[in-house]
Amino acid sequence: MNGGSLVSEYQYYEFQAIDKPLTEKQMIELRALSSRATITPTSFTNHYEWGNFKGDPHKLMTDYFDAHLYLANWGTHWFMLRFPRRLLDEKTAAAYCRAESATVDAKCEWTILGFVSEDEDGDWEDTGEGSLASLIPLRADILAGDLRCLYLGWLLCAQSGELDDEELEPTLPPGCPSLRELSASLEAFADFLRIDPDLIAVAAEGLPDAAASQPTRDDLSAWVRTLPAAEKDGLLLRLVEGEGASLRWELLKRFREERSPAESAARQNVRRRTVAQLMDLRDAREKERTRREAEEKARRAARLAEQQAQARAKHLDGLVGREAQLWTQAEALIRTKQPKKYDEAAALLTDLRDLAARQGTPADFRSRLAELRGRHSQKPSLLRRLRQAGIER
Questions:
Q1: Model-level pTM greater than 0.85?
Q2: 123, pLDDT greater than 70
């Protein structure tokens, strides 16, 4: 997915550094990969309409960046996030990232998540600009223990047919919010990777709801007092050395793990569904949704038809007693020999036909129409319009 040697039509690359900015040396190294990329202390952005990016996104994630988005107009969507391994270990990530559509790669001190969606038949709508910004909050969510993003990645693998039918769904950790109400970033994630909304909905119905409560100051204070003094000294030293952001997530992760063993055990006992069961539920939901949508469409069409019928009836009521005048107007419009006027004449004749049907005199209408047609039989444009209006067969 780094482009290879093929000439592309459109490819978009964006990288973001979150935990710490790029150094001057790193920016120079990145500039060597692309002379036209937009490079800042926190980002690298470029798009290609001809040629390909010379860099390796995997290597750039290992060496420089915390987030990456790639998009190509042949249907590839690719999203990566990088975490310090002490904050997101490979084993935790691997419980969700199980196949090609959702991967986990542990390199040096990093755990790198990758999510890929391929859709060669999809319509090309997005240039990719701005897409990564809507996804970046997922990194903080994961660090805070909200692993719904990873669960959606597992659903993507199931949707793509990459998992065994009997594989059980993973569980969500204690305190994880419900999948029933997705954040804006999770919705953007699901949309970017084309995860079936029906599949997400049935998955949410079977997952336990857990209130995503943040620890109170008193909770944290009590827990901090239990830490050994020497350990606190080490934590303060790391804070002074600039590890503030990652240190916070690390301590919160440890706090949750030590304070929530009972809830974690309870979640492990929740009945987990297989891939096949989830897909069957998805199919049933899709079928039911399609049925309801068809019924609603039929109801809307019926309401519209009724409104149109009422409007038509009201229009015809206003024409009663003016039949002779309408025939005269139609004749005058036809004599102009102007196509636009023929359309107006056809509309008047349609009114006269419908009035005759309401009054029980369709034979009289057909007789007068035949006379009119005879007088204007050398006007093929008129006769064509009459046929199109359903007046003349």
A1: no
A2: no
